[in-house]
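User: Design a sequence. Structure:
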């Protein structure tokens, strides 16, 4: 009669599972939840400590710093959860799980932002359309008035009005050029900061997923070879 005795042997076991979407979705949920909680905490602290004498630039800088810190913490925590739940005892796979989790969070954020922006744009366009419908008759009346006044105005006055109109056009063109330059600078700055934010998020997610991945595999087997072949058990720690 064979008596079964079990011993614990630290033996690496090659896992065939390469990706766990359940772990990735769980990490994404943890990331979003952590971000919401930290944002509410920052809003509560900021509302309690803000002073009316503080400049808008200082408030914006403080808000940006807190947003960056809270985002990195949320991404790291969500990636850690994704790497831990992946069940793959390798740091590379854990880091990849964290990066995919971060990508899923970005896609979800873009979809939600796009939906919100679409609703805002539709509402704004509807409001502008209503106002334009009321402005149309007034513009027509003004145009008729100007046309009638031009007919009764002397040629000298007409030339003066045309010269003033030309000067106004030049000023408007220069103002449009300056506005275009400001818009270009703003777009360039926003794109650069967006790239840096995504890069930092990718680094934080890779570190979190690598830190959360199981470190070792413990195989518990029976002493008897036959029993070991039929009743082996593998756990991850």
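Assistant: Done.
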């Amino acid at each position: 009669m064979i008596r079964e005795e079990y011993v614990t042997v630290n033996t690496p076991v090659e896992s065939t599972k390469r990706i766990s979407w359940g772990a990735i979705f769980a990490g994404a949920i943890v990331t979003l939840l952590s971000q919401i909680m930290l944002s509410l905490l920052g809003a509560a602290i900021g509302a309690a400590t803000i002073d009316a004498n503080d400049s808008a630039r200082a408030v914006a800088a403080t808000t940006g710093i807190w947003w960056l810190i809270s985002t990195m913490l949320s991404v790291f925590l969500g990636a850690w959860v994704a790497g831990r739940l992946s069940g793959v005892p390798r740091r590379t796979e854990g880091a990849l799980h964290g990066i995919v989790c971060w990508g899923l969070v970005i896609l979800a954020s873009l979809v939600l932002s796009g939906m919100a922006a679409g609703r805002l744009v539709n509402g704004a366009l509807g409001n502008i359309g209503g106002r334009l419908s009321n402005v149309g008759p007034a513009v027509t009346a003004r145009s008729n008035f100007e046309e009638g006044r031009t007919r009764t105005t002397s040629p000298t006055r007409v030339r003066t009005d045309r010269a003033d109109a030309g000067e106004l056009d030049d000023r408007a063109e220069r103002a449009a050029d300056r506005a275009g330059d400001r818009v270009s600078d703003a777009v360039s700055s926003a794109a650069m900061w967006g790239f840096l934010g995504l890069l930092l998020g990718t680094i934080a997610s890779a570190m979190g997923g690598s830190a959360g991945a199981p470190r070792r595999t413990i195989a518990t087997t029976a002493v008897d070879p036959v029993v070991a072949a039929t009743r082996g058990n593998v756990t991850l720690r």
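Residues 1-13, 218-223, 231-236 have pLDDT under 50 and may be disordered. Residues 91-152 form the longest helix (62 residues).
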